[in-house]
Amino acid sequence: MAYALLALVVFGILALLPQATWHSALSCDSRTHIEMMRAVADHGLPDYTNGPVSRFPELQARWNLRDGNRLWGTYPPLFAYSMAPFFRLGGLPAVSRANVVLLAVFAMLMFAVASRFFRDRLWGSVAAALIVFSTPIPATSIDMSPYILADVLFAGASYFTLVGTQITGRRALVAASFAGFLGALSVTAHLLTFPMVVGLLAAAGAGQPGESHPVISIPSNFPFRGWIPSPTSLFRAASFSGGLLIGFVPVATLNAIRFHSLNPISYGPCPWRSCAETGQDKQHIVDMAIYAAPALLWVAAVVATIWIARRRARLAAVAGTVLVAAFVLLPVLRIHAWHMGRVAWGNLFDVGMLDMDASPVITHPADGIGNMFGPWLIRSLLQCTPLLALAPFAAKVSGAGRGYARIFGLPAFLGLLALMLRANQPTAFAFGFPIVVLRYTTPMTAPLMILALHAIRSLHWSRGHGALAAIVGLAIGIVCWNDYDTTLTERAFFLYAPLLVAALTALAVWRALGRDASFWNRTAATLASACIALGIGINVGFTFPAVRAIRIGGDVRTDVVMRTLPPRVAIVGYGGDIDTALAELEDRDVEYADLYESTGWASIMELIDRWTAEGRPIFAFLAWNSDLKNQWPNVDFELVIPTENVFRIRKR
After folding, report:
1. Is 429:277 a contact under the CB 8 Å cutoff?
2. Looking at residues 213-218, what average pLDDT do you find?
3. What is the pLDDT of residue 57?
4. Residue 301 pLDDT
5. Could you tell me which residues are beta bridge partners of residue 376?
6. Please, are residues 365 and 479 in contact by the beta-carbon 8 Å criterion?
7. Which of 117, 161, 261, 501 is most buried, by the most CB atoms less than 10 A from its CB?
8. Mean pLDDT across the stretch 150-158?
9. Pick from 26, 33, 8, 28: which is nearest to 150 by CA?
């Protein structure tokens, strides 16, 4: 039964291969990854030229760094190097198919991880199925981005971390080394996994039941006494760290060439040059940590006070008064904590009430319900997968798996904490310009799913519950199947029904765990089945189709543009408008000006003169439904692709 379910999951994923011909860029992030893989396929390094960049700043593109007269892609390089062979063989459609295959590999790895954790292959296959069909991971994997590669590598790191804690001797140290190495590779695919890998390292270094005595003596009533490292776990953490360092050496070397820095994990334009959109010269982890420090210190003080004064009413009253007064009287604490709380709430529950102030493509509908990316509703983690609300209850489950659960809980916690650190940025940037879902939360969904299933395994399950979840989930998917969701009813359903069911299920699970009450046990199992059904229906019926529709729309735009542009061409426009066209120009002589890197249209007259003198046709890409105001009397703008708002620029 377990292998049959896993095979069904894998075949369901591979059924996407015939339609996986996507060949456009969804965003400037995707465009940069494509530029990097094209450069690697061409000459082995993720750098390229775009005309005399040192003379014309407008020729520098987001997100790249100029060094001399060349542009270096600033993102982690592993995706570019991994996909360059596929790009050489079949272009961008081959890269899209490779990502689909990686999704199938991810499902098999999560089956291995969950089966070893649960010591039950059937629950391992259930975990793999739910991770694939009831989370946004498949939607993010069909973008031209490294999310699924990072997920695969992190799943491998999780597996070997789990193995290393379950066995002993030299083999345990070898497994931990493999875990660290794969963890480093996942970070060199996508930086979002860095805090999660730190969580794996902490889990590897924590003491496990049955190991030798802890290295320090702790009172028996200390709540985290079982986490204190032992000599065995410290050797395991050292082996993990060794593998981590080995995995970081290649990217550190490349960063020394690209950025003149051996830092293996920092990337992106903000650490290396200014970010004009955010108004901040730096958005490094140091900046984020300094911003968050007051709130984090206050939370730590609250936790410490609760522990120290738990049996001293007078001390608790005095300390509580001081902490509340500090929160009220210190604006830096109050404001920063509020911003961090907003980011945490948005990532977990609902981003619809937050104003994405810095993004012209994200809007509120007239009725005020939700945030929209074009016609698509943006949803948060639990609105996509309500079952994940049960993950915290894994802490209430006793037994052999309790210590091993840290391998999933610590990475998820640190991943979400890292997202909260982005509170020093404008709202849209704090959430990473969400498209249909909050992409930055997806790496945490797999470990959270395993924890959620761990919390409900002991409920009174029957085949009826499984049938209910599958049938109702598919029915919801069919009813909700839509590339767009613009009606108030649909938006209200997607936003609030998952949160309501998740809250009711959490209440029932809390009442059921640790009790023999059959009513709450049956109720919790039924409500958990409803959570599963909602997750399957929403992601199969809307999340994946919506992102697929965006990819298809980008391909259509690309194909239309490619039929019009000549082999030798110049392109002008803002990043979001030119990204799609620039994805499919590997066989053309192209120079382009990204107006985000300039003061706007008024600054490119010199470039128009240069391109005109070279005989290079010039095309301007504008946002849909926007007008172009010609600033030069000797320049004509001719609308040549009305459906895409593309103009031909000619100098008289």
Report:
1. yes
2. 64
3. 82
4. 86
5. 373
6. no
7. 161
8. 97
9. 33
**Residues comprising the chain, all counted:** 652
Q: Which two tokens stand for residue 29?
A: 């992030």
Q: State the DSSP H helix or E strand holding residue 211, giving kind and residue range, or none if neither.
A: none
Cβ contact 533:473 at 8 Å? yes
pLDDT digits (tens, 9 = 90+) for 262-307: 888 866 556 555 455 555 555 677 778 888 889 888 888 888 888 7
Q: How far apart are CA 25 and CA 77, in angstroms?
A: 17
* Cα–Cα distances in angstroms (integers) from residue 18 to residues 26, 96, 100, 105, 108, in the given order: 20, 11, 10, 18, 21
Mean residue pLDDT of the chain comes to 86
Residue 541 DSSP symbol: I
Residue 281: other Cβ atoms inside 10 A:
12
Whose CA is closest to 167, among 202, 204, 141?
A: 204
Catalogue the long-range contacts made by 185-188 (C-beta closer than 8 Å, 24 or more residues apart): 185/78, 185/153, 185/247, 186/150, 186/151, 186/153, 186/154, 186/157, 187/76, 187/150, 187/247, 187/248, 187/264, 187/265, 188/76, 188/77, 188/78, 188/247, 188/248, 188/250, 188/251, 188/264
DSSP annotation string for 200-234: HHHHHHS--TTSPPPSS---TT-TTGGGS--HHHH
> Which amino acid, residue 343?
V
Q: What is the 3-state secondary structure (H, E, C) of 48-69?
A: ECCCCCCCCHHHCCCCEEEECC
How far is Cα 435 from Cα 30, in angstroms, rounded to an integer? 13
Q: Which amino acid is at 529?
A: S
Q: Residue 220: helix, strand or coil by DSSP?
A: coil
Return the DSSP state at 214. P
Cα 190 to Cα 255: distance, rounded to the nearest angstrom: 15
- Tokens coding 540: 């199969």
Distance CA(444)–CA(416), nearest Å, equals 8
- Residue 469's contacts (CB-CB under 8 Å, 6 or more residues apart) are 529, 530, 532, 533, 536
State the pLDDT confidence band at 517, using cuts at 50, 70 and 90: low
Q: Report which of residues 586 and 269 the model is more confident about.
A: 586
What local confidence, expressed as pLDDT, does residue 274 receive?
A: 46
What is the pLDDT, as a whole number, of residue 453?
95
Give percent above pLDDT 70 in the chain.
90
Separation CA 386–CA 500 (nearest Å): 9
Taking Cα atoms as reference points, which of 381, 385, 390, 386 lies closest to residue 408?
A: 390
How sure is the predictor about 628, in pLDDT bands with cuts at 50, 70 and 90?
A: low
8 Å CB contact between 637 and 611: no
Q: Is the pLDDT of residue 481 over 50?
A: yes
Q: Which helix (H) or strand (E) holds 265?
A: none
Contacts of 418 (CB under 8 A, 6+ apart): 192, 194, 195
pTM over 0.90: yes
Tokens of 609: 């003169």
Gap between the Cα atoms of 379 and 372, Å rounded: 9
Q: What CA–CA distance (Å, rounded) separates 103 from 100?
A: 5
Ordered alpha helix ranges (H), 119-230: 121-133, 137-141, 147-166, 170-189, 194-205
Whether residue 258 has pLDDT greater than 90: no
